[in-house]
Design goal:
Elements lengths: L5 H27 L6 H43 L3 E3 L2 E3 L1 H18 L3 H16 L2 H9 L9 E9 L4 H14 L4 E9 L4 E7 L6 H12 L4 E10 L2
Antiparallel strand pairs: 1-2, 3-5, 3-6, 4-5
Helix pairs in contact: 1-2, 1-3, 1-4, 2-3, 3-4
Protein name: Protein MgtC
Subcellular location: Cell inner membrane; Cell membrane
Organism: Methyloraptor flagellatus
C-alpha cells in the first residue's frame, strides 16, 4: 500500500477499461464470424498490450513505454503466427492474425493514454473487417484475367503412392514439352491409397486449351487416376 497512488491507479483503470471495451468490440465481430481468435482472445491481447504499455510508462516514463511497446509488437507477431494454418495449397488465418496485431495496437494506444486514437483505430479495424467484405467478395467472384493480374497456375494429378516418383517425372516431361517452366512439384495430399501432386507453373502467358490438353494427355497414362488444373491469383 505504500506504493499506491490513487491518481496513477485511476489512469491505469481508464487505460485497461478502454482496452477491454475496444478489444470487446473487435473480438465480438471476430466471434460472430466464428474466427479462430474470437472475443476473449482479442480482449486479452488488447488488455495485455495496454497493461505492458502502462507499466512501462509508470516505471520508466514514455521512453520506457516505447521500449516495452516494441517488445509487445514482436510478441504479438509470434502469437499471430499461431493462428495461421496451411490447408493444402491455401493459407488460412492471415486476417485473424492481422486483427490480433491491431488489437495489440489498440491496447498500446489505451495504455499510453491515447484513448481517442485507440477509439479511432478500433473503428478502422471494424470497418476493414466489415465494410470491405462486400468489396472483397465482389473481387473474388470476378473472373481472373491473366492480362490484368499475376495468375498462378497449377496442374494437379492424383496417383498411387508407389507411382508418385514416376508420375512426377511424367508431369515435368509433359509441361516441358509444351514450354511451360515449372516452379516446383510438391505433394499437397498424401493418403494410404493415393497421393496428390501439384505442379506450380512459373507466372507466364498460359493457354487454357493447352492446359486442358495437358490434363487430358496425363489422364490417359495408366499410372494416373485423374488430372486437372487450377488458376488463382498469387500472393
Amino acid at each position: 500500500m505504500a506504493t499506491f497512488n490513487s491518481s496513477e491507479f485511476l489512469t491505469t483503470l481508464i487505460a485497461l477499461g478502454t482496452a477491454f471495451v475496444l478489444g470487446t468490440a473487435i473480438g465480438f465481430e471476430r466471434q460472430f464470424r466464428q474466427r479462430t481468435a474470437g472475443l476473449r482472445t482479442n480482449v486479452l491481447v488488447a488488455l495485455g498490450a495496454a497493461a505492458f504499455a502502462d507499466l512501462g510508462i509508470r516505471l520508466y516514463g514514455f521512453d520506457g513505454g516505447t521500449r516495452i511497446i516494441a517488445y509487445v509488437v514482436s510478441g504479438v507477431g509470434f502469437l499471430g503466427a499461431g493462428v495461421i494454418m496451411k490447408d493444402g495449397t491455401n493459407i488460412r488465418g492471415l486476417n485473424t492474425a492481422a486483427t490480433l496485431w491491431c488489437s495489440a495496437a489498440v491496447g498500446a494506444f489505451s495504455g499510453s493514454g491515447l484513448v481517442a486514437e485507440a477509439v479511432l483505430l478500433t473503428s478502422f479495424v471494424l470497418a476493414g473487417n466489415t465494410f470491405l467484405r462486400p468489396l472483397v467478395n465482389y473481387i473474388n467472384r470476378s473472373p481472373i484475367d491473366e492480362t490484368l493480374t499475376e495468375a498462378e497456375y497449377r496442374v494437379i494429378v492424383t496417383c498411387d503412392p508407389t507411382d508418385a516418383s514416376d508420375v512426377r517425372d511424367l508431369i515435368a516431361e509433359e509441361l516441358e514439352k509444351r514450354s511451360y517452366p515449372i516452379r516446383e512439384i510438391e505433394v499437397v495430399l498424401e493418403a494410404e491409397d493415393h497421393v496428390e501432386l501439384s505442379a506450380t507453373l512459373i507466372p507466364t502467358a498460359v493457354s487454357a486449351k493447352e492446359l486442358d490438353a495437358v490434363a487430358a494427355h496425363l489422364e490417359k497414362n495408366p499410372l494416373i487416376r485423374n488430372a486437372t488444373w487450377t488458376v488463382s491469383t498469387s500472393a
